[in-house]
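Escalation from tier 1.

The customer reports that the assembly of two entities below gives different structure tokens on two consecutive runs. Tier 1 could not reproduce it. I'm attaching the input and our single run for tier 2 to review.
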Amino acid sequence: MTETAPFFSDADLAGDFYTRRFQPGPSENTLILNMGPQHPSTHGVLRIVLEVDGEYIVRAEPVLGYLHRMHERMAEEKTYLQYLPNMGRVDYLHALAWNWAFVGAVERLAGIEVPERAEYIRVITTELNRVASHLVWWGAYLLDLGAFTPILYAFEDREWILDLLQTPTGARLTYSYFRPGGVAADIDKEFLKGAKDFAVHMRDRLKMYKDLVTDNIIFRKRLEGIGPISLDMCRRYGATGPVVRGSGLAYDVRRAEPYSVYDRFEFEIPTTGSGDAMGRYRVRMEELEQSLRIIEQAVDSIPEGEIRVKGAPKVKWKAPAGEAYFAVEGGRGKIGVHLVSDGSNRPYRCKLRAPGFSNMSLFGEIARGILLADAVAILGSLDLVIPEMDR
Amino acid sequence: MDLGELDARKGFFKETLAGLWSLVVGLKVTGKYFFRPQITVHYPRRTVDNIPSFRGPIELISREEDPAKPKCGACSMCVSACPSGCFTVTKKRPPAPTPEEIAEQKEKEARGEKVKKKAAPKEPERFLYDYSLCSLCGTCVEACPSGALRFSASPYRAAFDRKELVFDLLADLAERAREDRNPPGTGKTTE
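Tier 1 run:
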């Protein structure tokens, strides 16, 4: 038998690039701690290098790239239609918003009109998807904070949406449903009825959520006043979505740059001025209600007609040369796709603007001087989806 | 005891009571759930009922006159449309000429006439589909000019080896024809 080398013989015990570059602070009493990349409350492979003094965080630096899949480069290697399935995998929780951002950019680039029925279908499915996304956030966030039961209730309701969306899209999570010039499949009366029934059911559940969680004193003490983000900080980092709305600015792409048929629906943009974790929580809970309102209005007024425009791009389609930018409001904020075309069948460049990246970037600044336990509460309140940040 | 201290004590009791009450409310919600019927499904013993609407692995659609023959014309549009290169399609070669035909051809050549070779039948010789690469986007289904592809509805296609996930769709079609479970048109096959 040969003697085996000790397990750590080749391991670099001085730490990797990030920990070495992360200089210890002036005090000798601090400890450098890695939170992640395998940490249950970072929801994926996010790593945060922390310098802690006891229970307090002195510095925090997020390290990204563990889930980088080169989506932007892949766009340059694939035709416009072939790139569609990638969009369902950028942000798996709100896949339809990314679907929409990309097909929207292609449509703007080529000047393709979308039939009205397809626009309504897009609105209904995307809003259902947004509700599902917020439900996952709600359940997982409370799981981070130590409450186990709510995620079971959230997933029960989410299951309803997944079953609904499975009928037209054929998938349950990584949807590839929108096409340039329309959608892949039509929705039937059953789906519309199901969507309406869901809205009624969900309103009832929101009341229960409020009783169970929002009004719970332990929960409120855990969140109120934690991680305040000022509007100025949001501007500096480019934070969007519920983060900036939680800080008091009513910015929503659906209202600020109305796309599709959103200007026909009545809905409010919920904001709170507190800017803390509780404010962001309240904004998201109110957004669920607003999404249900949009779904109900869209179901009531959906017209008959085509779901895909005649002459929609086919396999050998070539885009006209030019540039286009299209932004939609995703569950986490402003999603933008910038396409540059040189007239061939593939994009010359495709830039994906992920809201999660900007929202997460401000963590390093607000984490200074907070308790380690509060860091989890703040990270959760930013609603991070790691594959979206890394792309 | 001054008034300020009294107020502070009052506030403390109020908060404690409110906290206890929120506990009672929460327990009421979960307590109700405790006595409700189960909503999860014990998988191997029972399955969910909406599997048919699921878009599973791609399968070939048969011709109406012959359930063992695919509609496919071996044009390879699916090959060029697929983002991940799942398909390997080879066209059938033209049938080998019989001795009489060869003789006839030679005769024609001798006379100086143009010889027409037999055209290859528009059918696939081999139709392989690598499910391990597929992202079920449906680009191939939409690209197919003869409408020969559709999604099946079988979610149970797990395997221990990657090689097991390369499906021979022609063999699959023949097997379905043999077992007489080949719904025509866009109807999906379920397991």
